Amino acid sequence: MLKMFLPNRMVHTPYDITADQLKQQGIKVVFTDLDNTLIAWDDETAPSHLVEWINHLKAAGIEVTIVSNNSEERVRKIADEVGVPFVYRAQKPLTTGFKRAMRLYAVRRDEVAMFGDQLLTDVFGGNRARLFTILVKPVKQSDAWNTKINRKIEKIVIALLKRKKPLTWEDQL
Question: Which residues form the signal peptide (predicted)?
Fold first, then answer.
């Protein structure tokens, strides 16, 4: 059961990951969480480096979709700014939102990477959906109230995972 919380990779930030690195892993589509993965949970606009990263991936033929548990209004605003489709109220770690996002593409699950900053929602949900999971460090150290509970549980899970295997943060895939 614990292995379901183990990401395939751990990277400092999604912005260091290039299209070539994703392609070397066989990735054709990126699903990504929004809050504290791409932007701070309380930011209201997309920063230029997010736009540049998504444009870089799209120019290389890699599709990007935001898969978030947040509201339609919140997710749509950022998704529209960066020009990508989105799934809101994804209900991660359930696979419901991932299934909705998968319907947008004619790819196999092993060709999809899920980026996220939380083990309990993004990684666990992505693993349950049988995606290539990539844990990133949170953009901001503070969290929305509902995420603070998850972070406490996450610390326990990380400690248990470290007993089984060293966890290392990388700069690239």
Answer: none
